[in-house]
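Thread: pyridoxal-5'-phosphate complex, take 2
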Amino acid sequence: MNTVRMDTTVQNPDLVTPALVLDFEQISQTYDRFLDSFPGGQIFYAVKANANPDVMRLVVEKGGGLEIASLAELERSLSVGATGRQIICSNPIKHPVFIQRMQEEGVYAMVVDSTYEVEKVAKYAPGMRVYVRLAVDNQGSVLPLAGKFGVSGDEALGLFDMAKEYGLDPIGLSFHVGSQCLRPQNYVNAIRACGEIWQRAEACGHSFHFLDIGGGFPAGHYHDKSIPTIEGIGDLTMEAVRQYIPNANPMLILEPGRGLVGESGRLVASVVGKAKRNGQEWLYLDAGVFNGLMETFEGFPPVIRLLAADADDREMLNYTLAGPSCDSCDVVARDMELPEIHIGDRLMFLDTGAYTNEYAVAFNGFPIPSVVKLERELELA
Ligand SMILES: Cc1ncc(COP(=O)(O)O)c(C=O)c1O
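Output below.
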């Protein structure tokens, strides 16, 4: 006899939409998969992906850390029980008040990637541990982060020297391969580049222990097998650390955002209107680019399911999906094949546990999704 898990929350007709249904058990299991796949690694969850206090508390209670970008994220981290030692800041541009508060709270370390930031950190957090963010290849990531942050190897060496001169404690390197990284080799290449700089810096008298491989771990493998797994990236990465940073046994830091919480979320939206325009069928939802689905605007392809018992029996049609606001940029998907949809039907957007509510605003008065905990029911089959 098998046991199957029935997901009752998303199918509940009383669920008020838009709703972001979060599966906390899945976050916990994914956290454990990261630990198993990166033996000895330490997770500092990138809070920006989903700063829901219960998600942050879960990570802290499992012994993990938090990666923060702002004063508000610091205060929230402390309020869910994180100690300073469980917090790092990988935002290269920081407000002086934020820097001061981080030092007061004993935040473990913060990133720098410019001479201005070294000066600022030295002024507002004297003696602070700092790491330098390296610019690395972001090709093959759905949302590249390259260009805005990061320095070359030579610049990194200059920043280490300067940091030391200014009384800071340079401890190592970080990078980010871009969000939803579909090319695991990018981690290997980035670690190789870190290894080279690590050795050059040590030859110049620095002593490092900190390697932060950032985020970028993709979500969605369970419905698209071509998406790299945490385990696969872990194998490649651990081998690269052994090969390129030998004898150092670095403190290996991971900053998953999407990779930790993305698959835990299902955004449920209702179809509130329909129209035929220039031969195209339009659907209007109660969630759109402004109130929950901003990532679709950034080119992230949504994965959508119709929540209807007879979904498999309906004729497939081609749709344009739009949000509820009056702005013409509020279009969530074009050329989307879906079973025929009626007003009042509900759609479920998969893998929306990250960058959904964090990006959302109630533009035009349309509410941001409420967060609902997934209730599971065990059923015998
Ligand atoms: C410094 C830093 N760390 C971690 C993350 C999380 O990235 P991801 O959600 O791709 O794992 C980001 C995302 O922007 C970031 O800027």
